[in-house]
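quick one, two chains, predict together pls
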Amino acid sequence: MTSATLAPDRPAAPRRSVRSGLPLTRVSGLGLGVAMVWFSLLVLIPLAAVAVTAAEGGWAGFWRSVTNEQTAATIRLTVGTALLVTLVNIVMGTLIAWVLVRDRFFGKRALEILIDVPFALPTIVAGLVLLSLYGPTSPLGVNIANTRIAVFLAFLFVTLPFIVRTVQPVLAELDPEVEEAAASLGASRYTTFRRIVLPSLTPAIAAGAALSFARAVGEYGSLVLLTGNLPMRTEVASVRILSSIENDNIDSAAAVAVVLLAISLAVIVVLDVIQRRVVRRG
Amino acid sequence: MAEHSITRTPVGRRPGRYVLRAVVTAYLFLLVAWPLYLVGRNALADGFTSLGDILTDPDVTHALRLTVVIAVTAVVINTVFGVGISILLVRYDFPGKRTLNALLDMPLSVSPIVVGLALVLVYGGREGWFGPTLEAAGFQIIFATPGMVLATVFVALPLVIREVVPVLQEIGDEQEQAARSLGANAVQTFRRITLPAIKWGVIYGVVLSLARSLGEFGAVKVVSGNVLGETRTATLVVEEKYLNFDKGGSYATAFLLALVAVACIIVVSVLRPKEDR
């Protein structure tokens, strides 16, 4: 299929059905053991260390770190902006997917490539890229550097592919004849979209939205040069964690990191639930 | 499949179609295309002087070399691990498979700064869980190349798996069973049957992992210590040069990184439809 160029944002994971297979042999069992040791050393133990470090200060210490005025402001800004960006992505992402699947025009291939740019572009370069059009030397004459709009814009840029790439394959599989039938029975375009198309797209949109939200909440690189990281104004949670690390305040860094980890975990659970529901329905 | 994705519009040619097309094109132009073009223009504003300057600066060339070494190492590790775990997930049955399956996607949604912090907490030389022991044995992880490789492997971990698993599921295991019943051992079956069948999935995964690994910034920043000429990667050079008012050098380095990233995307998008047709 021409549409899904970049798979990471395609719902490959939700489709990853866990059907039963062969029982483990000695070789594959050994392989699994090695893989699990590696995965634990790399991912599970370090992430557990974050949780343990945050818990060492006790609940009171954790709560104090998280509700510290400046920290609370970063969490509010990060989660609020991420929610807003996800809402915009739900509309624009679905729209872009629709145009890429249903429309044919010169230059569509170029748009396909543009969608994937934010995924492959190093985040620090993404910040510089946005700065060149919306920063102090903007040819448009707008300068949003060091404002909250810059945070919004950076999130919008890095999360662009997620909903597009999850919706696109589902939309391509959709049979236009059902829509034609609805239209021939007198349904308006809007009714057809709302009653026929949207329900089949909802799981894909939800999966993409979850990924896009998680990505925005954890974003760091693109903000460094763009937002100035002004405390109480444009500082996001990741930046706050980094400055805590640099000030050797590991406990406070771990406390905020746990909040972000909880959000990541929630997203994974949501994705898993969506996957199960889709499998049951299909 | 390719024909199917470019289906006819169900309800004729309406003006709404052109409005949508214009909105989407304008959105992508303002958000991605124009800013990307400007970086190229800024990098080449004074001809190739900036590019020439950074390519002759020993600190920058060292950073570029280090970036390539780290990225290639990370991609090799992730490819071996990714292909192995994909085969286990698709072909075998074991307790906890579902949880593992979900956890493998975790790196995609964890903040790079949290990744860095997590690695420092375990492998940090002073207070990490394993760090002091490893350092006593002569292995420095954090503030050294191994830590930067670990951070890069972490953030790019699911990419190969996400490409290979769907392909493995699609090809089924009849051919593998046939090979085995004809007396092929596990290695022969993998090399002669499985690997050729999943070749394209692996290649996409490798290209995407490479793009991601070359560009990793946050996690590497936390674990690197950013020592000039030692543990500095290309993305860190972009930041440092920009903050030191060397905008020319910053744009030039960013331009190089952007070129590689866009090249990776184009490679994937050119290869992929060919295989599906």
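Strands of chain A lie at 22-23.
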